[in-house]
Structures are given as structure tokens and as C-alpha cells.
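Order emerges. As here.
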Amino acid sequence: MTAQTVLVTGGGRGIGRAVALGLAADGMRVAICARSPEQLDETVRASGGVVVAIPADVSNPEQVESMIHDVEHRLGPVGLLINNAGVGGPFAPLWECDADEWWHCLEINLRGTFLCCRHVLPGMIERGAGRIINVASGAGTQAYPSMSAYVAGKTALIRLSEQIAVEAAPYGVTAFAITPGIVRTAAVERARRHIPAIQKMLDDGLESPPEAVTGMIRFIASGEADSLSGGVIALNDDYRKLVANAESRKLRLC
């Protein structure tokens, strides 16, 4: 896999930490951001000092702009953006949700992704190459009781990924939404106390280790999945079969 600069948002713990450590071990130049400097420091220590940490709130436009400028100054142009930062709540029927908490969920999960994409895309387009991976969820494909903010944000994130793929395709840039399954992140730990369906999935052994997501992202980062740009890739998908089917359809249309 060709070395490139990677930015992982929400890289202080969970999926983001596992992906950052895995890609750094592959020789990538990896930067991570999150709101908690302490969690970022833990990831840096786990990497042996290879990963670069830059604290930032992805919902803040000024902080995002400054963070990406810092990343590119220190490591070079971002060739792979992994939008992983996210929050889960509030967990209640819509009419019982606090309005500010509901909107905050979208501020992080959707607006944060938009802001990061908006700042890296001009450089990718100018260079004629780049990949964006947005960490979505199965909650973006169906409704779950008491999860209206999360479901709305992740559904929009899938559509945003499609939109980026369509608009950026002429410039050699690809975009993907991925669904990692049930990973025991802080958000899932909180959600399982409110959402019986999530607790049942954990009880049934359907949990995915964070490291498993790294394999999916490695496959996308290699370029082998470029024909799937704009699509949703699930952790349990047969990636190579999806690619073969996509390429076969493309040949039949030619």
C-alpha cells in the first residue's frame, strides 16, 4: 500500500484509535483529532509516537480549518480522510428529546463530516486523487426507536457520501460510507442501557472488534474498492465479490 497522509477524526479511542494504529503500522503518515487531548495522547503512546495528534472539535469550522492546515503542514496533503468522530444520544422518543442535545448529535455526526470534507476536497481535486471514508451505521439504513438524532444524522451521512462521490468522480476522488456493525464504543456503551435491541445484539455475540474495521479501511485505502465509490460497505460484506459485481455491471453498460 502506497504511503500517504491519513486524517482520522475521533482518533482518541474505539474505532478511530484502532484504525489509526493499524494504518500507522502499515507505514502511513497518520494524524488524529478529537476533543480530548488525554485520549489523543493515549493513542500516540500506543503508536510509539508515530501518530500525530491535533485536538479539535469537528463541529467548529475555525478549529477544523486550523487542524487540517496543521496536518498538511506537518505531514503533507491529506490523501485519505476517515470521518469517524461521532456521538450517539439523546436516547428517547423524539418528543421527549432535549432540542439542543438532539441538534448537537447532528452537529458532530453530520456537520463535522461536512466541514472536514469541505476542507480536504479542494486539495484532492487539484491533485486528481483522494479517498474519503465516512463511518456511518446500520442506523442509517433503518429506523430504531429512541434514536431519532443518530438515525437522522447517519442516514444523511450516507447520502452525503453519495453526493461527494458523484461530484468528485470527474476529478479522481472517491467517497464511501461504511457500516462497522456493533463495536463496543463509548456511544454503544451508553446506548445499550437505553435501547434493548442493542443490548440483545451484544448478548447474542454480534459485537465487532474495532480492529476488524481496520481491514475494511485497508481494502478501501488500497484503491481496490474504487468502483464502489458512493456505495455503502458493511463490515461483513464480501468486498472482492462486491467489486467484481460492480465491474461486471460496468462492462455490460459499455
